[in-house]
Specification:
about 60 residues, about 20% helix, binds zinc ion, Small CPxCG-related zinc finger protein
Amino acid sequence: MESAPVSCSLCGDVRDPSDPAALAWAGERDERGRDRWLCPGCTRRHTRDIEARLPVEWW
Ligand SMILES: [Zn+2]
């Protein structure tokens, strides 16, 4: 089954599944249960923000 097109939630870049770089995209589920995707560039730029973010249960 084909998954829906994915775009970066920060810069809007669209993920191309046929591109090997697509494997480097980071997916996560936000507090509303929606999938959020970050392109490799944004993942690298925001690694510290992402890792520092506490899970919702800790708010
Ligand atoms: Zn991006």
